[in-house]
Amino acid sequence: VRTAFAQEFLAHLHNLAFPVCFELIGLPDGIVVQLCCSDVDTPEVSQILEAFFPEIRTRHHRGFLASCWSETARFGCFVDFGLSEHFLSPLADSPALENDPLIGVIGALNTLEEAELGLVQVCFEPARSPWAEDLLSVLSIADASGSATAVARRKMSQPLSAVLVRTASFSDSGKGAFARVRSIGNALIAA
User: Fold this and answer.
1) Dihedral of the CA atoms 2, 6, 11, 13 (nearest 10)?
2) pTM beyond 0.90
3) What's the sign of the alpha-carbon dihedral 144, 146, 151, 152?
4) Least buried of 85, 127, 161, 165, by fewest C-beta within 10 Å?
């Protein structure tokens, strides 16, 4: 997927009523890819998906993750990821990705055994405060060289979102659940 195409797709999700989550759910018999949204936003999200990805088929399935959750083993492990650097670090920007950054994550989710579940969840919610204006105002005062301000202007030219990245796993033991979520998390960090 081209970077500009992905940015445009995410920009279209910015004006929804509620947050949207992208999920990769690993099950023993395969991986399910979901874009989850509220019932209120379902018609608009369906239209956006059809416009940007006409080659894919979509199905509406309410509560899929919850139903899988209740069918799996009872030991779980959850990890929420936060920023390890300031948010102005530019993301890799190229016309197209040479390799899919999620290859390692898919590999980790493909090794699940019976009654196990693995999850990667990325939740997006539009930033509601005037972060762009506030940040540019502060930087214009503090940044003598102007280099940070230029990076900030580029980043602020797109709609801002708050993003939560989470991994989770269920297994038949606490040790197994931790090992699975660690494997998924390490692959996600490497991406």
Assistant:
1) 150
2) no
3) positive
4) 85
Q: Token digits for 139?
A: 């930087």
Using CA atoms in the order 26, 32, 35, 39, what is the torsion angle rounded to 10 degrees?
-110
Q: Which two three-digit tokens encode residue 82?
A: 């936060």
Residue 63's identity, in one-letter code, is G
Span 18-43, mean pLDDT? 94
Query: What band does 186 get if pLDDT is binned at 50, 70 and 90?
Result: very high
| Structural tokens at position 91 | 């993301």
Q: How far apart are CA 87 and CA 89, in angstroms?
A: 5
The first and second tokens of residue 179, run together, are 């090992």
Give the contacts of 173 (CB within 8 A, at least 6 positions apart).
73, 75
The Cβ of residue 185 has, within 10 Å, a number of other Cβ atoms equal to 21
